[in-house]
Every structure is written in C-alpha cells, then in structure tokens.
Amino acid sequence: MDKKRVAIIGVTGSVGQEFVQSLENHPWFEVTQIAASERSAGKKYLDAIRNPSGIVAWDVEGEIPEYIKEMTVKRIDELDVSQLDLVFSAVESEAARAIETQMAADLPVISTSSAYRYEDDVPILIPGVNDAQTELLETQKKNRNWKGFVAPLPNCTTTGLVITLKPLLEKYGAKKVMMTSMQAISGGGKSGVSAMGITDNILPYIPKEEGKVRKETRKILGTLKDGKIEDADIRVSCTCTRVPVIDGHTESVFVETEKEIDPLSAKDTYNEYNKTISVAGLPSAPQEYYAFHEDPTRPQPRMERSVGGGMTTTIGRVEKEELFDHGLKYMLFSHNKKMGSAKGAVLLAEMLYKKGKI
Ligand SMILES: NC(=O)c1ccc[n+]([C@@H]2O[C@H](COP(=O)([O-])OP(=O)(O)OC[C@H]3O[C@@H](n4cnc5c(N)ncnc54)[C@H](OP(=O)(O)O)[C@@H]3O)[C@@H](O)[C@H]2O)c1
C-alpha cells in the first residue's frame, strides 16, 4: 500500500513536535514535507528547533525521530501541494486562518488551531465522540468550492470534558456542567508561559479559554441535522487555570443530570462505551478509551500521562453531588498534546481515511 504523503505545518512548535513523534513509522501516513514560519524556513529541523541560546528545544518525551532531523523546514509558499495528500496544521491560530484556507483549496487539512472551529459548515471533531458530524465536511467542500476541507480538533481543555460528558449526556441527560481546569504548561505553546511565571505558582486566568470550552462543548455534543449542527442543550460554566505541570490537563467537573446517576452506574456506562468505541483498532487508538478509577488518589498527571500512549482519558474521584437532585462530581485527566492535539489529530485522520474522506 502506498502511504499518504503528509505535511506538518507549524512543525517546530509544541504540537508540531508531537506530530513529528506521532507520525514516526506510521503505517498509513508518511511525512514528506514540513513547514513553519520565516524564522525557521530554510533550516534543517534540528537547527530550527534550537532556542536563541542554541540549545535543541525538544519538548516531547523521548528521542527526536531520525527521519526528521535533516529534513529542511519550508516556508508555506514553498510547499508543493501537488505532491501531498494531507496536511496537519499546528500553527498558531492567527496565522492559521490564511494558511489553512490556502491549503484546503487543494487538500484535506486536519487542524489543532481554532481558526475555523466556529464556522457553521465546520465540525469540531473528536474521533470516537462525534464521528457522525464528519458528514458536514462534504457541505463545507461544496460551500467553499474546495477540493479539500478543514477538520479542526477542539481546544485541548474541551477534549477531556467532552469525552467524559458524552456517555453521561446520552444515558442520563447532562443538563448543567461546572468545570475547573488545572492545565499544563505545554498547553500554552513553546513561548506560552515563562519559567518564573509558573514555578511555585498557579495562574488563575488563560485568555479566551473559557469561552472556547463553553462554545465547543455544546457544538461537539450537538446533532447534525439538515446540514447544520444544532448545539446540545447543555449549560457549561468553567474556570481555566494554569498549573506547574508539564503535560496533561486535570479538570474538576460537577454535572447535573436529568436522570438518577451514581458512581457505580457511571463506571458501568464508561465500561460499556469502552467496548463499542468507534475508533477501536485504529493505529493511534488506545486499548481503553476510558480508564475509570475507584482509588480516590487518581487521576494524577504523572501516573496517567502515558496510559494508552496518552490517548486514554482518565476519570476518578467520582461521587454523587448533593448540590443537585441528580448529578455527579468527578476529576478527569486528558493529555493535551496527545489526545488533546497532535496524536488526536492523527487519530482523526485515521478515522477519516477509513471513512474514505482522505
Ligand atoms: N499546546 C497545546 O497543548 C495545544 C493543544 C491544542 C491545540 N493547540 C493549538 O495548536 C496550535 C499550535 O500550538 P503550539 O502550542 O504548538 O504553538 P507553538 O509552540 O507556539 O508553535 C507555533 C508554530 O506555528 C508556527 N508559525 C507561527 N507563525 C507562523 C506563520 N506565519 N507561518 C507558518 N508557521 C507559523 C511556528 O513556527 P516558528 O517556530 O518558525 O515560529 C511554530 O511551528 C495553536 O493554534 C494552538 O492553539 C495547542
């Protein structure tokens, strides 16, 4: 089988580096071109990721894959789209809009940026959660007269919340959600927060994050009807904070449901979903989509981060919440750069490939 030829755009960034690792020896995709900003263009990858002091700044656990070290980083306008089948975009959101528009005219674009997330003909996709919304990509192609499309993932903080809410919404009718996040440093990108700012500290505000989580949760859990997504009837409130953890977001969630729910039925529900999850068996899918813990000392970022190769969402501290007639509180852990961005994007590409959309 010929592999699909892919480009990573924003390849030098935090998520871009994770793409490099997620695509190493991939059975279906081969990285043949890479691009970043003018700052990196023309350099060998290994030199492009050096920081101003000349130190190789590789933000991913493990070795830098050999295949990428000597590859030359291109400018966007140097990419040869005629030699590509697919683009992964990990560009900072402001620059992403023009770049993804240009790429989607010819190619499918799987994006981790927010540039297109809130457009009516653009689904925000989490493989395994709202696969049915991929049909909207056809409408998008027609509307825009593109050969390709833009398929964005959500913000990495939305990902864990929505993954854990989906079974609760379907089985128990989730009505209201309150969430407080404790987000990792790597979520801010390679120049997001300074060491002095985050060490021995908690930052109580992440610009624009809470609005994204509220909007995206309702859209992803919504229903595609007559070529449009009807938002889920669920009210979301959240407080997003940054904590001194390198990778992986932890979230404390309170959810009010229509039907009676208790921790045991929640556990059974997640176990049932594990058995029927649509992405099972895809190369980047975890063995278990959900990990449910009764041990009250879980989840902890250092223990959960590598579970399922960073693709498993962990749920723990599940208790009945007495504030509501029916409801639960729990904590979740989701890896922001694996399931929450690069590797989740590769999983999405695998799902779209299986559906014949790539
Ligand atoms: N970090 C996370 O956990 C996470 C999770 C989900 C989604 N996201 C989203 O994913 C995207 C990338 O995030 P990140 O954390 O990887 O950011 P980052 O570390 O700041 O990296 C940004 C990348 O974009 C490139 N870039 C910037 N301006 C460009 C331009 N005009 N043309 C081409 N390339 C350009 C940079 O290249 P240079 O190195 O050459 O400057 C770099 O490769 C963002 O939209 C972010 O919101 C991030």
Explain this structure:
There is one protein chain. The chain has 358 residues and is an alpha/beta fold. The protein has two domains: 4-153 and 342-354, 3-Layer(aba) Sandwich (Rossmann fold); 156-334, Dihydrodipicolinate Reductase, domain 2, CATH 3.30.360. Helices cover 28% and strands 22% of the residues. The chain has helices at 14-22, 45-48, 66-69, 93-104, 136-144, 156-172, 195-198, 209-220, 263-276, 301-304, 342-354; strands at residues 4-9, 29-35, 73-74, 86-89, 108-111, 149-152, 174-183, 223-225, 228-230, 235-242, 249-257, 290-292, 313-320, 327-334. The chain has a six-stranded parallel sheet, with helices on both faces. It has a six-stranded mixed sheet with strand order 10-7-11-14-13-12. A two-stranded antiparallel ribbon has the order 8-9. α6 packs parallel to α8 (209-220). The longest helix is centred in the middle third of the chain and has 17 residues, at 156-172. The chain starts with a strand and ends with a helix. The mean pLDDT is 97. Bound molecules: NADP nicotinamide-adenine-dinucleotide phosphate. NADP nicotinamide-adenine-dinucleotide phosphate binds at residues 10-16, 36-37, 39-40, 76, 90-93, 95-96, 99, 112-113, 156, 186-187, 189-191, 336-337, 340-341.
